[in-house]
Amino acid sequence: MQNFNDIPGSDNGSGASNGEGIRHDGSERSGNGGAGSDDAIVFRVDETSDLPIWAQLRNRIAYLIRTGRFKAGDQLPSVRSLAAEARINYNTVAKAYRDLELSSFIVSVRGRGMFVQKNVAASSAEEEAIDALVESCIKQYRARGMAYREVRERMTGIVDELERKAREAEEEKRDYATV
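Below the sequence we write its predicted structure tokens.
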């Protein structure tokens, strides 16, 4: 059985980082600079996202399937184990799995679990559309006279800012938990 902890990945597809998540070895990572790198995180909740948690999880699993990290026939983690690992509600994982099944990404086998569907396309028209938007942004920066290096630095700065905001939102959330 393939497990989320065996799959390299950096986030849930939303692009944000909150400093906590699931590591390859199954241990939790705290936001205070613990050992390991962010690329060991497979899924984490983006507290700053407008997307509900179930949709974030659904998008991440769909991405892992489309990119081939989950292969046809691979078994997904059980609803209970994934909920415990990701520190999210059981019903949230069940809803994400249900949506993935309705979208023909996965299939439920009674008494055995959830498996990746055999006929899932490796690419997504939606991701290609998003890539086209990014390419358009790069061309617009280039038209303003920016070198590719400057464009890369600008885009990296934007991603870094989004990650910073996500960390701040997570810290604020923890502050409420300690009050």
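Strands lie at 21-22, 28-29, 106-109, 113-116.
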